[in-house]
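TA notes, week 10

Several of you asked for a full example with nothing omitted. So below is the full record: structure tokens for the whole chain, then the designed sequence directly under it. When grading your own attempts, check the secondary structure regions first.
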């Protein structure tokens, strides 16, 4: 069986989740579900990045322990994934004892291989971003120094362990140039080379000696491991925590397709440092890194001070998870920044889900009830060219959609599903079953209803990774058995012969736009 492993970044436990975190995680869930329905053995991981100075500062401010803080926030993230029907195979937390041990072991390996050395570290550092800020990127305002995201930065001088990343500079440039890891969109490669793999590229500082809340270095108890080394290793530690054989199965096997999903601000860590760490540790490289754009709002980037942070819990209460999932997968570009719009979410819900998808289900069930005694007729071809040509349209769709799924371009998958829906609607309008009935063309009418039911079966199957709960409801309304829900069965036109359909119920209620 073909194997597929997908990850999201592990999110900082310092705050609450917003729509951006929800977007990446839903996207990973959707892609993983798509791969699964076309026959892959998939593993999907997400989780929490729970160490670092930011956590320490916030815990102190809230007068609770760091562990209490990360426990509290991790529960909120986990609840969000449950409410959004995101179902990871594993939810990793970097405070997990086995993860910490894994990180310490890998540090020791790198140390014994002499990829690590101790030196003095002088730098400008952003605590919010947990990263060094090179001189070029420092923004000076009113005599204070800020990073490009507007956080105040500090200067630090301390002893630190360093990873000899500079030794691998040419190697990583080659990896990126030769697409040994496919970076999507490819334009990010040039950005990485211009902005980071330049004369200012330095060895990476990988320890802190003024931090309490972090993984201790066994070789030197005065130091804690830098959050990014700790965090990146989750992609492999998570597999090993889950099952002893999963590192071999989902990582070490060259045939596994490994995909990291993240957005542009942390591309550097995933596309430069992570591959170098893997190389040093003799691990294979991921197949693809998808670095999507940001969700912004009409007032610009989301920020607490502007008060424009979009809360996914509020959206779930208003619109339900399927509508949010569908809106995000259709309207948020996987490449460029996109503006979040609640107005567009409502429009998409009404137009695509009520008037189109929901209506197709309702209409088809209505036609079966009216003309075929609530039973899907037996699949039997007639000479009617319009009907035969629609059968070919459906076959074309199923062969094409599998290729599109393998590109992992969810925007494109939704487009193809929308085309299928349009074709189904035109099929009804052009062939007018009510006329076939009037003209007593019963064989054509039965063939029409069989094709229509098959096309809807295929539509429900291929929309199911996005509309997780409504697709189940639709499947049940048709009375389709569960074991038909496989890529092999879905392509057989006679597999739903004589199935008695259930009553149709409205799948999506219209939402009135809030005019305020
Ligand atoms: N903890 C690090 C990642 C370590 S991974 C080894 C981190 N955490 S984070 O909480 O800041 O999450 C960053 C990720 O959240 C982004 O890479 C992206 O996937 C998602 N998003 C955060 N804000 C976003 C938007 N405004 N829009 C879209 N996705 C965004 O960085």
């Amino acid at each position: 069986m073909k194997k597929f492993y997908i990850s999201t970044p592990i999110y900082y436990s310092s705050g609450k989740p917003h729509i951006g975190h929800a977007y990446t995680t839903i996207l990973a869930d959707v892609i993983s579900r798509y791969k699964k329905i076309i026959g892959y053995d998939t593993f999907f991981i997400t989780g929490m990045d729970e160490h670092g100075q930011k956590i320490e500062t916030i815990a102190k401010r809230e007068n609770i322990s760091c562990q209490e803080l990360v426990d509290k926030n991790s529960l909120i993230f986990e609840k969000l994934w449950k409410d959004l029907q995101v179902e990871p195979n594993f939810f990793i937390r970097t405070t997990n004892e086995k993860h910490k041990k894994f990180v310490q072991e890998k540090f020791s390996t790198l140390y014994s291989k002499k990829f690590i050395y101790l030196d003095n570290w002088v730098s400008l550092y952003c605590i919010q971003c947990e990263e060094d800020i090179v001189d070029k990127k420092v923004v000076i305002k009113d005599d204070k120094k800020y990073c490009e995201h507007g956080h105040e930065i500090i200067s630090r001088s301390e002893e630190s362990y360093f990873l000899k990343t500079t030794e691998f500079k040419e190697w990583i440039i080659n990896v990126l140039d030769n697409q040994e890891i496919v970076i999507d969109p490819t334009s990010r490669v040039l950005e990485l080379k211009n902005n980071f793999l330049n004369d200012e590229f330095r060895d990476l500082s990988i320890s802190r000696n003024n931090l309490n809340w972090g993984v201790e270095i066994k070789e030197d108890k005065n130091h804690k491991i830098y959050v990014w080394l700790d965090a990146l290793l989750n992609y492999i530690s998570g597999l090993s925590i889950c099952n002893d054989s999963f590192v071999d199965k989902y990582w070490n096997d060259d045939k596994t397709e490994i995909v990291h999903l993240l957005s542009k601000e942390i591309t550097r860590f995933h596309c430069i440092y992570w591959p170098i760490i893997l190389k040093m540790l003799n691990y294979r490289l991921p197949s693809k890194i998808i670095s999507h754009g940001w969700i912004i709002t009409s007032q610009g980037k989301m920020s607490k001070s502007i008060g424009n942070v979009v809360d996914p819990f509020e959206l779930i209460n208003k619109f339900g998870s399927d509508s949010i999932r569908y809106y995000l997968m259709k309207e948020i570009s996987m490449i460029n920044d996109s503006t979040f719009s609640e107005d567009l979410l409502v429009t998409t819900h009404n137009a695509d889900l009520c008037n189109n998808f929901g209506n197709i289900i309702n209409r088809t069930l209505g036609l079966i009830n009216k003309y075929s005694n609530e039973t899907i007729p037996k699949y039997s071809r007639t000479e009617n060219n319009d009907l035969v040509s629609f059968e070919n349209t459906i076959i074309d769709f199923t062969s094409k959609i599998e290729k599109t799924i393998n590109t992992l371009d969810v925007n494109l998958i939704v487009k193809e599903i929308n085309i299928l829906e349009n074709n189904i609607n035109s099929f009804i309008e052009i062939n007018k079953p009510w006329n076939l009935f009037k003209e007593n063309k019963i064989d054509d009418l039965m063939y029409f209803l069989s094709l229509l039911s098959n096309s809807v079966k295929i539509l429900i199957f291929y929309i199911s990774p996005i509309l997780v709960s409504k697709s189940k409801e639709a499947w049940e309304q048709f009375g389709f058995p569960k074991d038909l829900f496989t890529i092999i069965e879905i392509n057989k036109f006679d597999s739903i012969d004589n199935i008695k359909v259930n009553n149709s119920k409205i799948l999506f209620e219209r939402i009135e736009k809030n005019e305020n």
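The pocket of 5'-O-[(L-methionyl)-sulphamoyl]adenosine is lined by residues 9-12, 20-21, 23-24, 49, 231-232, 262-263, 266, 294-295, 302 (CB under 6 Å). Use that as a sanity check on your answer.
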